[in-house]
Known about the structure:
Blueprint: E1 9-12, E2 20-26, E3 29-34, E4 37-42, H1 54-58, E5 62-65, E6 74-77, E7 86-90, E8 93-97, H2 112-127, E9 134-138, H3 144-151, E10 155-160, H4 163-175, E11 185-189, H5 192-202, E12 208-211, E13 216-218, E14 224-226, H6 227-240, E15 248-253, H7 260-270, E16 277-286, E17 293-303
Parallel strand pairs: 1-16, 4-5, 9-10, 9-12, 10-11, 12-15
Antiparallel strand pairs: 2-3, 3-4, 5-6, 7-8, 13-14, 15-17, 16-17
Helix pairs in contact: 2-3, 5-6
Amino acid sequence: MKKHDEKQIKIFSSNNWKDYELLDTGEGEKLERLGPHTFVRPFEDAFWPKTLSEKNWSDATAAFVSSKTGSKAGWKFKNKKIDEKWEIEYKKIKFLVTPTPFRHFGFFPEQAVHWDFIETTIKDAMRERSKPIKFLNLFGYTGIASMFALRAGAEVTHLDASRQSLEWAKENEKLNALEFAGHSVRVIEDDAIKFLEREAKRGNTYDAIIMDPPKFGRGPKGEVWKLADMFPRLLSHVQKVLSDDPVFVIITSYTTDSSTLSVGYALQDMMKSFSGAVEVGELCVIEESNDRVISLANTALWSK
């Protein structure tokens, strides 16, 4: 009988949040607190009854209505609409949040466990090396992971195809100007594949790479991105810009039709030339009302 390579699927979560809480889930929704405001968003995986009272839910600042209900999708505010971003922080890294038309807030709280890993691992690696760690954040969004790498002392390249996301990332960096004195981040608006192709031709390499590829999107010049078609090509190009002594590679996937194991096997194959290990698991947030472990994304992580 053939022995299979059994991978243990881990639960990745952080208990260090103060400005964010997942208060409750149930009946296809989740109730969250972001600083002074609470919000209701769809969460189709919550098949169970809600734990908190109806008043807790109805008192929320706003609720996002999905088009699946037959209504026009968007935020419905209880009182006055929130027009401005407001500031929250995680471990003294500050960033701006606000409800977006895509029902997100400009950050993903479940990724905090990766922010912790990025900062700690880069600091440890810097002690053993004579030159800075070169860190690449593909699909970097509003830049929070980049700021943790920056605070750890890495040379950071932050890339996204969305100009709006990059402007948001620049705002976040300004909030932490004193924290990052003497450090800088290279912010690039570009299609990920095209950027990687050019970097490989230039001979530029990176010691640490993270990527959160979307299921579907468009580049700055209308390039169409479909994860199912592009993922193998993406990993092939990432492999070409890895340094000879990489520290870590992290993949996060919110695509429901890709499993944790499939992401892990893809990363394992990409890193087969290096000694190290791949961990696979689910990015989770602990629910405050009853300690449920709520899974929100798949992840795979290679490290030395």
